[in-house]
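Action item from last week, closing it out:
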Amino acid sequence: MSAIKFNNVSKEYIRANAETFCALKDINIEIQGGEYVALMGNSRAGKSTLLRMMGCMERPTEGSIFINDQDITQMTDLELSQQRGHVVGYFHIASNTLHEIDEYYRKFPILLVEEPVLGTADEHVLAIMERLEELNKQGTTVVFITHDQEVGNRAGRIIRVKEGSIEQEV
């Protein structure tokens, strides 16, 4: 079963000067339940927008997003909130301790992690990644953003994002 599926998803923002900025362009990806996926790419490539959409925090301008085979683009704000509370866990690792990960985030079938090692002391990087890997081995779908190639290589799959598009999947 697909944990996360994007069908022709695009996201545009209106800047202060009324100019349109296309953050994501025609994204088509499918992440199976239990996968361990790294989203990689340069700053402003669209990784965080992609992750926020997976986390039911933003809606696409175009296209459809499915979480556990449910079309979240058709959901109400209340239904999206319920998804965030029961299905999708989203966090910044820098603002959470390993204990919080164990106690709180263990309950989610899908775990989305914004830059898991950004601002974290080197001695904690291994512990953080091992904890995410442990949760994944227990069946949790884990998707995380990283700029660090060594950290990204720990994932079972890497999706490279460039200028709002999927550049490569490995």
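Closing note: The radius of gyration is 15 Å.
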